[in-house]
Amino acid sequence: MAEEGSCGATKAAPTAAEVQLQRRRQELEYLKKNAARIRSRNLLTGLGIGAFVVGIFSYTILSVKQERIVEELDEEARIHIIRGPRTGANS
C-alpha cells in the first residue's frame, strides 16, 4: 500500500514559476493565432473613440460660437430697445 502512494508522489506539482511560464506560452500562442483579429478590433475601437472625441470637441466649439452670436444679437436687441422704435416722426 505504501508503494502505491509513493508512485503518485514522484510527480511533483509544478512550481509557481513553471505555471507562470506555461501561462505565458499559452498567451503567446493565442496572440500569434489571433493577431489579425485582435488588431482589427483594436483599430475599430480606436477609430470609434477618436470619432467620439472629435464629435464632442466639434459640438463644444459650435456651442461656444453660437453663444457668442446670441450674445451679439442680445446686445443689438438691447440697443434697439434703449433707442426706442423707429418711426417716421422720430428717426
- Can you count the beta strands? 0
Which segments are poorly predicted (pLDDT under 50) over 5 or more consecutive residues? none
Strand content: under 5%
Q: Helix count, per DSSP?
A: 2
- Output mean pLDDT: 82
Secondary-structure element order, as H and E? Answer: HH
Largest sheet: none
Rg calc: 37 Å
Alpha carbon gap, first and last residue: 121 Å
Class of secondary structure makeup? mainly alpha
Shape: rod-shaped
Helix share bin? over 70%
Which features would summarize this protein structure in a list?
91 residues, mainly alpha, rod-shaped
Architecture overview:
The protein contains two helices and no strands. It is rod-shaped. Helices cover 84% and strands 0% of the residues.
Précis, in short:
This protein is mainly alpha-helical and 91 residues long. It has two helices and no strands.
